[in-house]
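Reopening this one. Same input as before:
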Amino acid sequence: MDSLGVAYHNSDPYFTVFKIPKWRAVLYKFLSVTFWGGLPSTIQRRVSALYSRVYNKPFTKYLIAPYVRYYYRNPNYLDNFFPPEGKNEFDSFQDFFTRRFKKLPTNNNPWVWPCEGLLCDLGRISELGTTRVKSDLRTVETIFGVKKGIMPAAYSFTNVFLHNKNYHRIHAPISGTITRIQHIPGDLIILRPWIYKQNPSLPAFRNERYNIDITDAKGRIWYLSVVGGPAVGTIKLSNLMVLGKRVNKLDELAIFLLGSTCCMAAPEKPRYHSKNTFVEVGSTY
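Same output, byte for byte:
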């Protein structure tokens, strides 16, 4: 990566997009959307809460070292992070998910990626069409909780899938002012984009999410949607999440417990990344 945060390789050498047979994708989608997604949201939350509690148990800390060895070639990967909440060591696997950078990335570019993961969906707002959710047809604006036509058609839509191994904190992609915070209750269907084939963003239309608008110095709104999935006990917003508050680029906005995705609608388009490439926190958007 150069001084502007431009990655010379835009793929994750430790992550492979799973290419599964179509019949398996159809089966997984049925289990996620029809079976699991058909359950009342209260049951989804109870089951997810039970599942997520397992990762808070002390014995799960012994999973961290083999997990890191499996997913990261750098044996000293964890040396770049602190445990969460002022802890001196990682006491559970959940602590690994919620790890903190010892030193945030630096980047002179005014626009950066807010999270780390697989860029599983990308396109202009005007090109994305509609998605059927249950019996309703929904536009991409549905994800961000705004009416159709509010977002400029030329805005770029991105969806980054955070694998379990990825860093799970969301940061401000720009400097600006918080102009909207919205919580949308919803389902907690499976997030993994490769089981939805032609519509990898389907869970973002259905799942529980927090929408955050940041208005930049030019008066342009950057729309973020922090989307939860199964086993997400909660999405925690940072103390900076106050209407009218000024945030600086790379300030922390939110944290996930376990899996998630982060969608964004922006007045700028990504300069160095294409669909199914890997993005990193602080790298040039």
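So the earlier flakiness isn't reproducible anymore. For the record, DSSP finds five helices and 15 strands in the chain.
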